[in-house]
Each structure stands twice: as structure tokens, then as C-alpha cells.
Amino acid sequence: MAKKSGMVLSGGGARGAYQAGVLVAAYEIAQASGIPLKFDFLAGVSAGAINASSLASNANDYKYATESLARLWSEVHFDQVFSTDSLTMGKIGIQWLKELSLGGLAGTTPGRGLLDTTPLRGLISRNMDYERVQKNIDQGHLDGLCITSIEYAKSATTTFVQSRGTLATWDKGRKRSEYSAITTDHIMASSAIPLLFPPIKVKERFFGDGAVRNHAPCSPLIYLGAEKLMVIGVRLQKSTAYDLHAANSNEAPSIARVVNTILNSVLMDAVEQDVEKLRRLNEYASAITPEQQIKVGMRPLDVLFISPSEDIGEMAVQKAAKLPRIIRYLMKGLGSMQDASEIISYLMFDPTFCSDLIEIGRKDGYAHKEELIKFLLK
After folding, report:
1. Sign (positive or negative) of CA dihedral 264, 265, 271, 277
2. 186 to each of 44, 155, 206, how far by Cα in Å?
């Protein structure tokens, strides 16, 4: 009997296009090998929440699911994600300036971000069929969809789970699950990058990016019963020349560099650390007997991790001229474009940039061809 499989899709704004490329390769490899491509559980945080939800709505047809997801990312544009006109940006800037300087006297406006993401809500709503998600679950094409967000009031990670209602639940202090039919609000909340995008209200509570304080992004699918996981990250694992140069620099870091570091820590470190932790636990579990595994409540978990072979931040800097003028102006106020490389990559919702990421993802997927086939056959 095939092991229960799960897919974990991490976050990173426009970097989500990379995941679409990996998924296209996964379908093509499975098809050519005569192996059905199917995941019992799908989990997404931040941009990964958009991808996971899209896959869930088309889980009955992975050819269409992967092709439509790649098409969505290859056609996305800045003004489909956030408002880029000077009037809107000017109003937001004036309000932030007012609140930072006079907040003690005038009070502040809750739920504010540097960018207006009203267009993103429309993009998600137009490209999601929520009724089909439940239909695919009812017909057995999918066991569950998990979308994770941070609840700001409690500083706790909440995973919204849509399933037939027979799966495990959990409440482990700052990590809890909640059964709910996934909606645009849940996806918007999970994708709300701190400070850049405003918090989103879901059932009278405010939520933000699912990567915030999410130290174990793979855990929801493990709790639900997944026995093997395919995890797609969005960051190059090797140190880049720029990282080495920055580490040896005697100059004080710019605001952009500091924000880069914080956003990397908040949005992308967790999935890599979680995968490494799972690998270490696998080594331990494999070294003890099945009886001992049962006694300590541990079982080996197959993990396939695919991440970019190229530096997406550096790629974003090369295309920085494509950013809306007002965004470029703001970035230059924080530091050099090189220092702001990660921030730029999150916001680079440009068709040519995203198409490049899709192609890199597809190439990296094929680079893991043998591992992927073994994973699907387990």
C-alpha cells in the first residue's frame, strides 16, 4: 500500500513562481514514467498558500493543475497584486508619516501595510474554485488542504484545515489547527508579508503571513498522517559571493540589508531548518528497531526537498528597473538595490521574472528526476 503523501509549499512573494516550475516538471516526469502524480495532503504558507489552494482546486487533474498554475504566474503583473499608482502610494505614505510622528496624539490606524493588496484579492478570487476543492476532497482526490497563518492577537500559528472532518487536530501552545472551508480571506491572510502587506481579518481575528513564527512548517501534514513529504523551498542553499562580501564588510548595514535579513529569517529559514531536523530524526529512527520506534513514538519519514539552484535575489536585482517607479524610489531610500535584493524578489511580480523562475524550477525538478521517481513509488 502506497504511503500517504504530502506536499509543503513555503513562502516568498513572487518567488512562488519557482514552485510552479518544479510542479510542472514533477507532472512531466511522473507522466513519462507511468506513475500517477497524487498528493493526499497539501500545505501552503504565504505564496505557497496560493499555490497549494490552486492545486487543491484541480487535484483531480494534475496536468491542468500544474499548467494553469504556471500560466497564472507567467502572466502576473505588479498591478494585479498591489496598487502601484502614485495617488494610492502617496496616501499610504502620508498616513504612515502622520502616525509615526503624531501617533501618540492622533492614534494609529489598525491593519495597515506599506502596500494596498486589494488587487491581489481579486486575482485570487478569479482564479480559485472553492467548491471544487471540497468536491475533490469528497471524491478522494485529496484528503486535506492546510493553510497556515499567524494570529497577531495571540502570536500563535493557526493552520486552517479543510477536509472531510475525520483527520487529527492539534493544540500545542502556539501551534493549533482549526477546521474551516478555505476562502480568499485565508489565502490573503497567509500571504500577508509583515509590514509590506496589511493583516487580514478572518472571522473577526487578524492574521498575517503564515511563515511568521512558524518554526515547523512540515508539522501540520505529519500530524494529519503524511508518511512522505515533498517540500519545495524558494531560496538557494549555498552561500553566494554577495553573502560572503557582506559578511566581510566593515560598513554598517543599511536599512535594506537589515530588513533583508529579518525577512529571510521570518519567511524562509523555517522550512529549511525543519527539513534538516526531519533528516536528523530520520537518521535516529533508522538506527533503532521498529519496537523502539513505537516506544518513543517515532517513525522514519521520507523527505524530498527541492530548492533553487540559482540566486533568486540576485536575479531580482538584475531586473530591478522593472519595478514600479514609486517602489524603486522607496527601495533606494532604504539602501542599495543589492542590499534590498530579497525585498525586491518578494515584490517582483513581473511576467519575465516569474517566467524565468518557472523555467529554473522546471530545470531543478528534472535535476531531481531519480529522487522524485523513487519518492512517488514509495
Report:
1. positive
2. 11, 17, 10
Q: Provide the grid cell at 268.
A: 524562509
Q: pLDDT of 100-113, one tens digit each?
A: 454 554 455 555 66
Task: Please tell me the pTM assigned to this model.
Answer: 0.90
What is the per-residue DSSP string for 250-319? -SPPPHHHHHHHHHHHHHTHHHHHHHHHHHHHHHHHHTS-HHHHHHHT----EEEEE--SS-HHHHHHHT
Least Cα distance to 118 among 72, 79, 75, 82 occurs for: 82
Q: How far is CA 235 from CA 11, 124, 191, 253, 315, in A?
A: 10, 24, 17, 21, 12
Q: What is the mean pLDDT of the chain?
A: 87
Angle at 79 between CA 123 and CA 310, to 5 degrees: 90
Count of positions (residues) in the chain: 378
- Write the single-letter amino acid at 96: W
Q: Which of 142, 216, 204 has its CA nearest to residue 177? A: 216
Cβ atoms 216, 154 nearer than 8 A: no
Please, are residues 306 and 364 in contact by the beta-carbon 8 Å criterion? yes
